[in-house]
Amino acid sequence: MVDTLLSVSRQEGVGSLFTGAKFAVFRQATYGTIRLGIYYSVKGSLEKDGVTMPLSQLVLLGASAGIIGSYVRYRIYSLYFDVYMNEYPTFAYLGHNLRFHFRGHSKM
């Protein structure tokens, strides 16, 4: 792994190691915010008078928040992809294949 980092740094520059970092941070920030927001808002509304919920309910709530957050994230990326396709029509040639893979399917 260190060899790969050094090799890429020498060939393409240190800045190339951070290519895509902005999008990755955005992705994690939106997904994490959605999940935590759902989890803590529902947990706060279900807990009464400081009585904590059982662990099984907390696990179920966390899993549900993750599923809902994943769906919302998927819809956001789908919208982003549609906007990108409309903004860059020259990308449309490759776009159908990318959309097919993006939707979770594979032709290969």
Short description:
The protein is mainly alpha-helical and 108 residues long.
**Order of secondary-structure elements:** HHHH
Q: Helical content, roughly?
A: over 70%
Low-confidence stretches: 100-108
In whole angstroms, the N-to-C terminal distance is: 28 Å
The assigned structural class equals mainly alpha
Count of individual helical segments: 4
Which term fits the overall shape? elongated
Strand content: under 5%
Summed over residues and divided by their number, the pLDDT gives a mean of: 78
Radius of gyration: 20 Å
Number of strands: 0
Largest sheet report: none
Word description of this protein:
The chain is 75% helix and 0% strand. The protein contains 4 helices and no strands. Helix 2 runs antiparallel to helix 3. The radius of gyration is 20 Å and the shape is elongated. The C terminus is likely disordered.
Keywords:
single chain; 108 residues; mainly alpha; elongated
Helices and strands, with pairings:
Layout: H1 2-12, H2 21-46, H3 55-87, H4 92-102
Helix pairs in contact: 2-3, 3-4
